[in-house]
Amino acid sequence: MKRFLPLSLLGILLAGCGWWPREFVSNPDPNHTHADFAVWVNGEKLDFSANELMSGSSSEEKGEDHGHEHLHPYLHLHDGVGYVIHRHKPGLTFKEFFDSLQVGFDAQCYVSFAPMADGFICGDTPFRMFVNGKEQPFDLEYVFADTDQILLTNAGSEAQLKKEFEAMTTDACLYSRTCPWRGEPPKESCIADPDVPCLEALP
User: Fold this and answer.
1) What is the pLDDT at residue 49?
2) 118: number of Cβ within 10 Å
3) CA distance 177 to 188
4) pTM for this structure?
5) Interval 118-166: pLDDT, tens
6) How far out from the chain centre does Cα 109 lie?
């Protein structure tokens, strides 16, 4: 006699084993988006987690009275996390974000004028730009899509490039609430532009 597990029990077992399919969902506030990013220069990953580059705590955003100076009105790093960009207004570019950190690039050099400045760092190979694992022209006017993974690098070998791809983070979806199995992100208040209102869909 054949015995069959109830579907509900089978689902629990599969989920517990990590076999249950994980489906991404839509960002409940498409005006508040995020991207993972990394910058590697001469084989070293740059650290953007310094306190001087933060715009306070995400939980402390309360419009104009949040108590912390924002380096840009609508592009931020938060909570000591130096690899997830928070964008509170559509259409803003990657360059605007770096400008707010006093960071710049040319064909083969990285420069920082921020308080934790690294000064000029130049390599033998030009910078390259990868978005979601695919190379595209190095253009900081790029307007990132929600949950993009963006890598800027002057890696000179495929082995180094592979190492950098493997080190890319995947936390933007957590902040955008598009991968619910990751749990809840830190609570964030919305910073609204008069022409781009916040969507009060977040619990």
Assistant:
1) 92
2) 14
3) 12
4) 0.78
5) 678 888 899 999 999 999 999 999 999 999 999 999 999 999 999 999 9
6) 23
Report d(CA 15, CA 13) in Å as an integer.
5
Residues in the chain: 203
SS (H, E, C) the chain: CCCCCCHHHHHHHHHHCCCCCCCCCCCCCCCCEEEEEEEEECCEECCCCCHHHCCCCHHHCECECCCCCCCCCCEEEECCEEEEEEECCCCCCHHHHHHHCCEEECCCEEEECCCCCCEEEECCCCCEEEECCEEECCCCCCCCCCCEEEEEECCCCHHHHHHHHHCCCCCHHHHHCCCHHHCCCCCCCCCCECCECCCCCCC
Token pair in block for residue 141 = 């006017």
